[in-house]
Amino acid sequence: MSTTLDPTTTGAGPGADGAPPGRGWILAGLGAGVLAIVGGIAGATVDAVYDPDVSGDAGAILRRLSEQVPQILVFHTATMLSCALLVLFAVGLHHQLRTRTAPDSLVPGVAAAGLGLVAVAQLLGAGLTTEFAFALAEDPDLVLPESAALFNHWIGTIPWLWGGAGLAGLALFRAARDGAYAPWIGWASLVLGGLSALFLVSPLQYMAGMTGPAWLVVVSLGLLRTPRGS
C-alpha cells in the first residue's frame, strides 16, 4: 500500500521545531518489537508452574525450572534489549509527532508515556532473573521452592504488560486521522492498539503481550516507508 502523504498536512506542521531525526529510532522500534516476540516465546517455554504434571508441587516446579535456565536467559536478554530499544523508539516517535501535530496536541506525550509504561514493565519483568537464574543453574537447593514458583508466575505475566502500547497506538490513530501518517498506519494502530488498550483495562492484561509487539513491528515497518518531514 502506498504511504505517500499529502504535503499540506505532513512534514513540518504547526508544532515543528526542526527536522525529525534519522531512521535509526524506527529501526530501534522494529528491533524492540521483534525482540519482544522472541522474549515472549522464550518466556512462554519457562512453563514449570503451568505444567499440570507438577502443578501445586513447589519442589517439582523448582526442579523443572532448574532445567529451563537457558530459556530463562534467552527471555531475559531479549526482553532487556527490547526495553532499551523501545526507549529510543519512544523518544524518536515523540520528536516526530511534535513536528507533525499542533503545538498543544496531547498525542506526542500520550504516545511516549504509553511506550514508557511498556519499557518499565519489561525492566521489572526481567528484573528477577538475576536473582534466580544463576542460583537455579548452580544449585536449585539455594532457592526456596515457593519463591521459584512465584518467579515463574512473575515472568509469565509482568513482561507481557504491553497495554501501554495501546495508548501509543490510539495516539498514532489520531495523528493519522489528522493527516500526519498514511491512513493504513492509523487503522492498523486502531485495531492492534485498540485491542492492547482493552487488554490494559481488563483482567487479561498479559494478552497485550501479543498484540502490542505486533503493533510495534507493523508500525515500525510503516514508518520506514513514510517520507521524512521537512
Automatic annotation (TrEMBL):
Locate the transmembrane regions by residue number. 25-46, 72-93, 105-128, 148-173, 180-200, 206-224
Keyword set, alphabetical order? Membrane, Transmembrane, Transmembrane helix
Q: Which residues form a coiled coil?
A: none
What name has this protein been given in UniProt?
DUF4386 family protein
Task: Please tell me the species this chain comes from.
Answer: Nocardioides flavus (ex Wang et al. 2016)
Its taxonomic placement starts with:
Bacteria, Bacillati, Actinomycetota, Actinomycetes, Propionibacteriales
